[in-house]
Amino acid sequence: MNRTIAYITFRGMLGRRRALLLFALPALLLVLAVTLRATGNNDLDISTVVLQRFALGTVLPLLGLIAGTGVIGPEIDDGQIMYILTKPISRSVIITTKLAVAIALIIGFGVIPTLVAGLILTGTLAQLAVAFAVAVLVGGTAYCAVFVALAVYSRFAVTIGLMYALIWESLIGNFAPGAKNLSIQQWSLAIAKSLTSATAVKADISLGAAVVLLIIVSAGGTLLATTRLRTLSVTSAD
Amino acid sequence: MSTIKLENVSRWYGNVVAVNGVSMTIGPGVTGLLGPNGAGKSTLIHMMGGFLSPSSGTATLDQAPIWKNPEVYRKLGLVPERESAYDFLTGRQFVLAMAKLHKLTQPIAASRRALGLVEMEDAADRTIGTYSKGMKQRIKMASALIHDPPVLLLDEPFNGMDPRQRLQLMELIRRMADEGRTILFSSHILEEVERLAQHIEVIVAGRHAASGDFRDIRRLMTHRPHVFMVRSSDDRLLASAIIADGSARSVQLTEAGLQVEAVDFRRFTWLVPQAARAADVRLWEVSPTDESLESVFSYLVAK
Question: Domain segments of chain A: what residues?
Fold first, then answer.
């Protein structure tokens, strides 16, 4: 971890227009929770749908994409990464710092709002709120690792990430059972299921498999990003 | 005292060769890397700065490989060509952040010193986004000087600067060099390089075209044949006068006027008005046709 890199990254993330999305997504979740609670539509089944489909299935991948690519992608595109790369700092420290900032953003804009929304909806019933908050944290870490790596590898990281999250996980993952095996969302859901007694939470992946896959993907993404950063060529026009 | 050494360095992108078998040694003092746009200057600087791996050959800084070796940045300061610094930071925050990234023991003192060197104290508390091009260039310079590096690489540092800023930066670079630093800067403008660099390396189309003291390069450039277009009241008469003198290799009568290939630039430019007056011919136009830098360079390559 490097505090200076973290400071610059936070300033960059929260100063950009994209930051509005970071605020808007969890705000939407909270408004939805409050509305359902106020209208009395907050039984366990509906609450599960909100947390699973919206918090875990929609808000989290988008947050992961914004945070994961945002902490490093624009810097590579605009060339400012040179100011960090021209310092005697190991490339793994740079990547872990970027990743830590992305995860901190996930905690602030994903984990805490999910917990609060869960508590508004169901209180402490069936540990549903905590279960999904943990799932969002673990899944968020994996998303960030993947998207940071993607941002170091490709200038089209946001597009590729959106296709993965929206088309693969949401569309194909919901119809083709096989695709679920390769879905961060489904692995996170397995974590949530293991932590709650609510029967409405169903997962197709076993907890053991989910944990192993989440660890592999998070560590793999970090490693790939570091390796790639070591040989990052700045190919600006001559 | 530090030395950057390129040994038979080439770099290609797919089928395109950007740099072709270049060997050079950059020692203390100011070295100018001169070449037309697209010649491969940036590619060379990126390889010297560790941002690009040579496709073949080696680039070293005091015998240590530069590629994949972040430790070289203790000795190396780099001013990239691209303008973008962190626009949302103030100049002071930016330079201080760079000091901290270098893990200097006294980052605040170091950043104050660097801001002083480039004379940016007054604007240091404005965000970089509000700076002019020249100011951005200076703040980038401050960030590169923060750890007092013995080697400084500057990619097109004078681009977009007004004459006053240009003079200031030249002054600063000279001062840095007097302190024994090794400084390399790239430019496509001969006058800039000539005014600042004791030593010049010329790159044309990815090849190392010439190397040496600026006087040698100047001589090479002035001794090449110059082609002039001359229009006058009596081209035929003037042509005979020019041919008789011997300062021109050939004179060609064309529809548009006389096309003269001069061998001695000085003598020819002196002769033409004299000869015209003696022959009572009125000169309408004397214009060099190949004065573009590219033609100068292509002549050097052919040598």
Answer: 3-231
